[in-house]
Amino acid sequence: MQPAEPSRGARARTQARDGMRIDWQVPIPADDGLVLRADVYRPDGPGQFPAIVSYGPYAKGLSFAEGYAPQWQKLVTEHPDVTEGSSGRYQCWEVADPEKWVPFGYACVRVDSRGAGRSSPGRRSGAQR
C-alpha cells in the first residue's frame, strides 16, 4: 500500500485520482504569519461541498495500513466493513475516509496542526508577538 500523499515538498498541487480531486499541501495562512498545510479531497467536478474537517498532528499523508500495520490488520479482520467501498489508501489515523465520503458529495479536509507535519512551527503559549 502506498502512502496517501506522495512524498514531495510542501508545494501545493492538485491531482485527479481514484474518483476524487485531491489538493495536496494547500496553504492556509494564519493571522500571525504561520502557514498551515491541508490536504483536500473532494468530488472531481465544479461546485461547493459540505466539508468534514480534521486538524491534528497525526501524519495526514500516512495511511493507517502503512503506519500502524498490525493495528490495521486487526481492525479489518474483526470489522471488515471498515474497508467496504474503500481501498484504505487514504484512511489515516482517526480521520474520515475520503473514499467513503467524497462519493456522497462531501469534501474531506485534513490540516496539519501548528508545528506538525508540513505546517510551519508554532509559538509557545505566552510568547510575545
Gyration radius, rounded? 16 Å
Strand order of the largest sheet: 1-2-3-5-4
Number of strands: 5
Number of helices: 3
Residues in β-strands, percent: 25-35%
Mean pLDDT: 85
The low-confidence runs, each spanning 5 or more residues with pLDDT under 50, are 123-129
Distance between the termini: 43 Å
Helix % is 10-25%
Whole-number total of structural domains: 1
Element order, helices and strands? EEEEHHHE
Short description:
This protein is of the alpha+beta class and 129 residues long. It has one domain (13-112). Helix content is 14%, strand content 28%.
What does this protein structure show overall?
The structure is a single chain. The chain has 3 helices and 5 strands. The longest helix is centred in the middle third of the chain and has 10 residues.
Considering the chains and any ligands shown, give keywords for the structure.
129 residues; five-stranded mixed β-sheet; single chain; globular; alpha+beta; disordered C terminus
How do the strands and helices of this protein lay out in sequence?
Elements: E1 13-17, E2 20-29, E3 35-43, E4 51-56, H1 64-67, H2 69-78, H3 98-101, E5 107-112
Parallel strand pairs: 4-5
Antiparallel strand pairs: 1-2, 2-3, 3-5
